[in-house]
Model the fold of this input.
Amino acid sequence: MAKKTISRTQFLRGDYRGRNAIMRPPWSLAEDDFVEQCTRCGDCLKACPENILKPGRGGFPQIDFSKGECTFCQKCQQACAEPVFRSTEQRAWFYQIEFTDRCLSKNGVVCVTCAEQCEAAAIHFVPRVGAAPEPQLDAAACTACGACYQPCPVNAIQFQQSPTISDTQPSQRLEAYP
Ligand code: SF4
Ligand code: SF4
Ligand code: SF4
Done:
């Protein structure tokens, strides 16, 4: 039987099954480069005024939107002494949200909670005959800030890589939040 090998990235973050891709702080380098250079010092965690950074598997910082949203204040990047961030002139993340089947509106119950949280106005509700309006995402407008994540009453918001993903980001799926 062929021996299963794990990548250095998986080893460094303790992801021995290779299943978990997670959201790092905004403007982070691609995953391989990030875990190679991050010293797990925790300075970014302490710097985040929204308290949405936590030590993830292997001690590397990861986003936890159950605590709040990212304001893109850049304080995590400013607090970091290592070369693990991209230019802030680029897009912060290459992710967008998706609505899972738990969404109340998809199940006939009127709910617009997520849209009310979205400053980018990226969520619109499409009228349906005989059913509750269904949410639709303007993917180009979604910044993946996470403001809609926690208020959703049924935890129906997930994050996925944007189809317009840049080569600077790894090709991995996101693990369940938080
Ligand atoms: S940009 Fe600001 S709010 Fe977002 S993770 Fe970094 S420190 Fe926290
Ligand atoms: S807040 Fe949640 S349940 Fe309500 S419409 Fe948005 S995704 Fe659906
Ligand atoms: S992640 Fe932010 S920008 Fe995207 S839909 Fe939710 S609130 Fe709007």
The chain has a mean pLDDT of 84. The radius of gyration is 17 Å.
